[in-house]
Task: inverse folding
């Protein structure tokens, strides 16, 4: 199966690889997936307490090219967004942007899960209730 | 000048040797007769070519030419051998012994027979991929009719103790079939010395064409028979009906002849290149060889690069064609059952690459592959959260992972 140009671009030149200091209260970390499933994504956001804007986002991913591209794209989209805007990112937008084939949709689902998980970690650190996912993935 | 992409997936299939291709060509446009046509020169010419190929093939495996049954490939040969024995020897018993690491053509055939009343024992292999003769001896029962164990494993390259298993089966009066698809043409295989009763093999793994294979069926001590699985004209001593693929068979014969004459030199050359590739790649931190290092095919190496996912890695080395045990390469999302049978963590199975060298592999290609794989592994580890945790001394097993 051939990869789309956008997947190849994100795989070859991944945006925002790295690690944020997870002990800081304005950093939220999401770690989703499992090594035995062949996909693990760690996505981190750094939020400006004053404005509620995500000022930085970093990722590290163990997985196939589509998983790497999905998380790379997610960090690109997260930067400059408010938490609410970030929560509205839908996995199907990632599928569309990267032209992922059906067998790779789970990579985009994982990226969406990673975003929610990072936001909930940030909320928990700051005494807020976690946001329940409205969607049920199959 | 290095030509890209580089083909290191010779366990999947091989390039046709130009000498084989040349031998085949007259049988498309000139000598196109049906080998079963006994009444005219077109048929005689084809029959003569098939007879000659049968001799070339028999010479490679130490059999008589009368013991070669042509098929469409090793999958059909495995089906014919196992189903054919099950039907032919039904009055003697219904128990078949095999390994959990066999090719799907054997495993799925056995599963099919289970539905037809067969009793199948799937033996597990040791961590190095090998089965012990004692384990097979212990599994043989009064109703055992067949032991089927592959010669060389397609994913790992490990070689089972075929000669010892053959001797055991002979002593216990049980038929012995081996799927020798990966071994024939690569290492010396002798059906008499190995006490093999039935053996599947195919042309396209040894620089011959796709679509033609053979089943060796022993004619003496004991005389083995299999029930045909297709009805028709009664070709191949009644065991496999269907017009013979004459050009394919001619190519198969030529491929066997070349293998017989050049095997010693070729396997020595491939082993040196394979060992160099392997030694260099195993220098990478946290990389592991899968399968027994000593008892294996000369051209295969299966390596896991921990904390890097196999499909992601293949994308990073897109100029080199290899295979991975990663789930992502299949629609099932399950990693290789062969690697899992060794007791490997799923995670290591996801991180594996299989390198299959071949007749046309060059030293320059190996140099390039070493460089490319090393760079890709390092790059992907820099972006792997698992690698970071490993480096921080975090035990990955202590983390509660979310399933998805």
Result:
């Amino acid at each position: 199966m051939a990869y789309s140009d956008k997947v190849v671009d994100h795989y070859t030149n991944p945006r925002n690889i790295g690690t944020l200091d997870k002990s800081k209260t304005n950093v939220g970390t999401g770690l989703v997936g499992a090594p035995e499933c062949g996909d693990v994504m760690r996505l981190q956001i750094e939020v400006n307490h004053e404005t509620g804007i995500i000022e930085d986002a970093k990722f590290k991913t163990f997985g196939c090219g589509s998983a790497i591209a999905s998380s790379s794209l997610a960090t690109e989209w997260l930067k400059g967004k408010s938490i609410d805007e970030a929560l509205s990112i839908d996995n199907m937008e990632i599928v569309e942007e990267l032209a992922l084939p059906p067998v790779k949709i789970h990579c985009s689902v994982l990226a969406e899960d990673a975003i929610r998980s990072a936001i909930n970690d940030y909320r928990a650190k700051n005494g807020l209730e976690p946001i329940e996912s409205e969607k049920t993935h199959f | 000048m290095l030509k890209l992409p580089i083909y290191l997936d010779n366990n999947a299939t091989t390039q046709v040797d130009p000498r084989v291709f040349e031998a085949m060509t007259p049988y498309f446009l000139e000598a196109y007769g049906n080998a079963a046509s006994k009444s005219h020169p077109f048929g005689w010419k084809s029959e003569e070519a098939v007879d000659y190929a049968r001799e070339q093939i028999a010479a490679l495996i130490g059999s008589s030419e009368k013991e070669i049954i042509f098929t469409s490939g090793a999958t059909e040969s495995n089906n014919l051998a196992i189903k054919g024995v099950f039907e032919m020897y039904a009055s003697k018993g219904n128990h078949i012994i095999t390994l959990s690491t066999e090719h799907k053509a054997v495993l799925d055939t056995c599963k099919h027979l289970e539905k037809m009343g067969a009793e199948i024992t799937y033996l597990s292999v040791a961590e190095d991929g090998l089965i012990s003769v004692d384990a097979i001896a212990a599994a043989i029962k009064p109703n055992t009719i067949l032991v089927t164990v592959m010669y060389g494993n397609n994913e790992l390259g490990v070689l089972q103790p075929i000669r010892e298993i053959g001797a055991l089966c002979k002593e216990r009066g049980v038929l012995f079939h081996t799927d020798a698809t990966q071994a024939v043409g690569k290492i010396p295989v002798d059906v008499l010395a190995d006490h093999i009763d039935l053996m599947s093999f195919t042309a396209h793994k040894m620089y011959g064409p796709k679509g033609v294979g053979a089943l060796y069926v022993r004619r003496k001590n004991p005389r083995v028979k299999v029930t045909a699985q297709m009805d028709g004209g009664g070709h191949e001593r009644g065991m496999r009906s269907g017009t013979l693929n004459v050009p394919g068979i001619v190519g198969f014969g030529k491929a066997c002849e070349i293998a017989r004459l050049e095997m010693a030199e070729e396997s020595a050359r491939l082993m040196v290149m394979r060992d160099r590739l392997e030694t260099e790649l195993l220098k990478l931190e946290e990389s592991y060889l899968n399968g027994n290092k000593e008892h294996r095919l000369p051209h295969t190496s299966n390596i896991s690069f921990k904390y890097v996912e196999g499909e992601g890695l293949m994308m990073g080395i897109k100029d080199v064609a290899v295979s991975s045990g990663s789930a992502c390469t299949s629609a099932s999302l399950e990693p290789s059952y062969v690697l899992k049978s060794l007791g490997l963590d799923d995670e290591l199975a996801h991180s594996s690459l299989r390198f299959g060298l071949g007749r046309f592999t060059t030293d320059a290609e190996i140099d390039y592959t070493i460089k490319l794989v090393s760079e890709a592994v390092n790059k992907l580890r820099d972006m792997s959260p698992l690698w970071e945790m490993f480096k921080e001394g975090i035990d990955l097993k202590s983390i509660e992972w979310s399933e998805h």
